[in-house]
Amino acid sequence: MRYLTAGESHGPQLTTIIEGVPAGLSITHEDIDIELARRQKGHGRGRRMQIEKDQVQILSGVRHGKALGSPITLAVENRDWTHWTKIMGIEPIEEGVEDEIKRKISRPRPGHADLNGAIKYGHRDMRNVLERSSARETTVRVAAGAVAKKLLFELGITVAGHVVEIGGVKAERVPYKDLTELQEVTEASSVRSFDPKVEQQMMDAIDQAKENGDSIGGVVEVIVEGMPAGVGSYVHYDRKLDAKIAGAVMSINAFKGVEFGIGFQAAQLPGSKVHDEIIWDEENGYTRRTNNLGGFEGGMTTGMPIVVRGVMKPIPTLYKPLNSVDIETKEVFAASIERSDSCAVPAASVVAEAVVAWEVASAIVEQFGQDRIDLLLENINRSKVHARDF
Ligand SMILES: Cc1cc2nc3c(=O)[nH]c(=O)nc-3n(C[C@H](O)[C@H](O)[C@H](O)COP(=O)(O)O)c2cc1C
Ligand SMILES: C=C(O[C@@H]1CC(C(=O)O)=C[C@@H](OP(=O)(O)O)[C@H]1O)C(=O)O
C-alpha cells in the first residue's frame, strides 16, 4: 500500500490518495472521523483547533461502505481557509494594501523548516515553505492511518498509542488488561496518558511552559498486538519492518528519536538482561519470556507486541521567541507570533498510532499479498497456524 498527501495548512483542504487497500474492507466516514477528532484533542493545543472540526469526505474508492480495490481519495476541509483567501492568493487583493495582506515572511523561525526550505526552493517569502511544512498535514496522515487501523482490526491486530512523558513528567508503567483498556483510559485523559497520577502534573507542566512563553515536548508510545511472527525481512535493509516504522515515526513533525522496547537503555545493560528468552507451549507456539526488544528480531516481528516510542521536541514557535535573522535586511530580530500550540504531544500520539498502523498494514498486505480482505485473512490465519506448529 502507498499514499501521498497534498494541501497547505491555510489552503482549502488536505487530501490523501491511498492505494492498495484490499477490496471488501469496510470503511465508513465514522471510522475516520473518530481518529480525526482524537488528533484534535489534548491539553496544550492552540486557537486553531477551536476553528477546525476535522471531518473526512470519502471521494473515491469506496462504494456502499466497502473498499473497491481502486485508489481511495480522502479530503479534510480547512475551516480556517475562509480567513486566508487573500493571503493564499485565491481572492484578488485591493490596490495599495498588497504588501500588508500578502504579509511576506522574511523572518525564519528557529526550529521550523522556514530557512532551509527557502534556501532549497528559492522562496523569498517563507510562507511558501511553512504552509506545507506545518503539521496540519498530519490530519490526512491520520485519515490514511484510520483506514490501515480498520484493516488491521479486521485481521485481529490492534494498535494503540499513548503519552508516556511530557516536559520531564514521566508516566509509570501501569499494567493494563489489554489494548482496549489502554485506549479507553487514554481517551478519557486530557494528556492521553494511561497513568492517572501524572495527568495533572503533565497539564501543570504544559500550563507553566505556556505561562513562561515557552513550550515542552515529550515521549509517545505505540503498541501493536496480534501480529503474526515473521512480518518484515532480514534479507535487505529496505525490507526491515522496524526500520520502516522508525522512519515513519521520525517523519512526524518535531520527532527527534525513536526506540523499540527498552531502546536506548540497552546500551547500559548486559546481553543477559536485554535478550528475550524463547519459550514454547502447545497453545501459543513460540513466544518470548520478556519483550525487551519490542517485538522485533532481525527486522521481523517476533509475534510479541510491537512497542515503539518516539520523542517529540518542544514546539518551536515560542511566545518568548528566540533570535533569528531577517533574510532581506540581515538584521537580528525576535519573532512575534500570533498563535501556536504550547504542547502537541497528546495529538502527536494519535499521529504516531496512525503512521505505525500504516507501516504494519502495508507490510502485511505486501507479505500476504492479497487484493481481497477475505483471502488476506485466510492467509494470515494460515501463517499463524504454520508458526505455531513449526
Ligand atoms: C500535531 C502537531 C502540532 C504541531 N503544532 C505546532 C504549532 O502549533 N506550532 C509550531 O511551531 N510547531 C508545531 N508543530 C511542530 C512543527 O510542525 C515542526 O516542529 C516543524 O514543522 C519543523 O519540523 P521538525 O521539527 O520535524 O524539524 C506541531 C507538530 C505536531 C506533530
Ligand atoms: C493546524 C494544525 O496544527 C498547526 C501546526 C502548526 C505547525 O507549525 O506545525 C502550527 C499551527 O498552525 P496555525 O499557525 O494555523 O495556528 C497549528 O495549529 C493541526 O494540527 O491541525
Automatic annotation (TrEMBL):
Cofactor binding summary note: Reduced FMN (FMNH(2)).
Xref: Pfam families: Chorismate_synt
GO biological-process terms attached to the record: amino acid biosynthetic process; aromatic amino acid family biosynthetic process; chorismate biosynthetic process
UniProt binding sites for FMN: R132, S133, S134, N253, A254, G298, K313, P314, I315, P316, T317, R339
Cofactor: FMNH2
Pathway in which this enzyme or protein is active: Metabolic intermediate biosynthesis; chorismate biosynthesis; chorismate from D-erythrose 4-phosphate and phosphoenolpyruvate: step 7/7
GO cellular component, one term: cytosol
Chain sites annotated for binding NADP(+): R39, R45
Superkingdom of origin organism: Bacteria
Keywords: Amino-acid biosynthesis, Aromatic amino acid biosynthesis, FAD, Flavoprotein, FMN, Lyase, NADP
Any GO MF annotation of the entry: chorismate synthase activity
CDD domains: Chorismate_synthase
Enzyme type, top EC level: lyase
EC number of this enzyme: 4.2.3.5
Known catalytic reactions: 5-O-(1-carboxyvinyl)-3-phosphoshikimate = chorismate + phosphate
Annotated PANTHER family: CHORISMATE SYNTHASE
Function: This reaction introduces a second double bond into the aromatic ring system.
Family of this protein: Belongs to the chorismate synthase family.
Assembly with partners or alone: Homotetramer.
Official protein name in the record: Chorismate synthase
Protein's organism: Litchfieldia salsa
